[in-house]
Amino acid sequence: VRLRRVNDLIINASLLFIFIANGLLADTVVFTKADSADWTLEENQDRITDNVWITRKHTQSLFNIAQEDGYSGNSGSPVGTLWADTTTTAADSASYTSFVAMHGGSTQSLIGDTVS
User: Fold this and answer.
1) Rounded to an integer, what distance in angstroms lies between the CA atom of residue 116 and that of residue 90?
2) How many angstroms separate the Cα of 66 from the Cα of each of 10, 28, 60?
3) Cβ–Cβ under 8 Å, residues 88 and 20
4) How far is CA 85 from the centre of its chain?
5) Is 0.85 surpassed by the pTM of this model?
6) Which of 6, 67, 84, 116 could cysteine-pair with 95, CB 3.0–4.6 Å?
7) Pairing of strands 53-56, 46-47
8) In sequence order, what DSSP letters do the residues of 13-49 get, joined into one string?
9) Pairwise CA distance, residues 89 & 116, whole Å
10) By the 8 A CB rule, do 51 and 22 touch?
């Protein structure tokens, strides 16, 4: 999963579009975690901001360990994030939605894909 770091800010989709249009986004961040790795350790998390730390448990999907104990599915995991099923440069503000809505209930369909 490829994520974008935005100067340690959590921003809504409209502001994200402004950042994209003006080239204000930083480099791409690639998050990987081995299946058996301890998700509670910092080296197995993508700490994007003070409040968004993306990781996953052994048999669960992505969640924000800074704000939730595990993946909550339809409750909005990862909390505090919006996702698009394309690259950041190809997305517009309407492309961003919850993680569950973005992957359509099939996280396996994202393997090898670039999302933002």
Assistant:
1) 10
2) 13, 21, 16
3) yes
4) 11
5) no
6) 84
7) antiparallel
8) HHHHHHHHHTT----EEE----TTS-TTSGGGSEE-S
9) 9
10) no
